[in-house]
Hints:
Rossmann fold
Amino acid sequence: MMQRFPTQAAVENPRYGQLIIGPPGSGKTTYCAEALKFYRELGRQVGVVNLDPANENMSYEPVLSVMELITVEDCMEHLKLGPNGALMHCSEYLAEHLEDWLLPALRKLSATHNYFLFDCPGQIELYTHHNAMARVFERLERERYSLVTVNLIDSHYCSEPAKFIATLLMALNTMLRMSLPHVNVLSKADLLKKHETKLHFNVDYYTDVLDLKYLLDKLDDDPAMRKYHKLNAAICSMVEDYALVSFQLLDVFSTDSMLRLRNHIDKANGYVYKAGEEQTVNSLLACAVGAETEAARMEHDVQPYME
């Protein structure tokens, strides 16, 4: 996890945001809907901003939606683009209309909201190769939003070594390109019990991204993957050299799981350093430095998702 430390003077009326990204089907919209209810119950002035121009089935009421500006369907119809090309065009169009659409709307909303969940598009190339969304995030940061990227990845990828290594590479690439505080999340962790028999190692091996040599050995057991040994070894070595990627497990329908993730996110975007839900010095310090025994961490972060 990459996190933000308070290095500058406090901002008057600070604003915070979670940039919810991840591959299609990873649970971004579901997370936004549940997180909206969760943070409201904590007393935060929270709202969801939909930045996905193809998000037609929102299970929440956004305070602002990019679909008021442009939609993938319109781009496909009028510009004769395919779904991926239309999504990229929409992202570029959004980046070009930050000053005359997105930022003025957010400034108005800041009168009643100081915490935003940005539901972002699911096309992963927008974060690993394209720069439109990075420009949007950079402009929000210059607007003095304290941001954290929350990268949701379906936990079932742990059950296949090749997919998990690809996930590690994607997560590292995104972290480096976005250059923001970052929390990687294995979503739908409540379903891990169904895949437990397919896991080659304990769950903490995947969340802590332990010695990848063992995962490389499992890849070599597959004749189709064995010929890519040098490439896979290079990817694993690079991930280990950077030592940046780790994961938090999440069940969005579990209050305890959401609370655990909230602690990581609040540390990452600096919310923990303002007067929030933690009222005492001891609880503030415990959240800020992650003071917790390994046994307690395993009890709360891993065991609830295993038999």
